[in-house]
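re the bet — no i am not wrong, look at it urself. input seq straight from the record:
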Amino acid sequence: MGFDELSKEQQIMVSMRKVLSTIIKEVTPKPGEIYPLSEQTVNDIRLCLTLIMTREQELAKAEGKTNLSRPHYADEPQNTHTVQIQPRKDN
């Protein structure tokens, strides 16, 4: 389902989540640098993202949709393994 096919409320939720996530990415300092946001601001952003996620889940449930996808982190163990296949050399 594309963005334009979502209800206005769903579009707002998606847009707010994306904007907050982008802000977090842009202000996250490199290792050793000072974090520019106060602890209260970080907690408020977490609360907003939690509320957005909860409302998105409520809207999906009301439409009879289930969302089994979850975010994955770079350091999270993977359930799949990539296997490199070498072409067979015919003699």
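see?? The longest helix spans residues 39-62. told u. also The chain has a mean pLDDT of 86. so pay up
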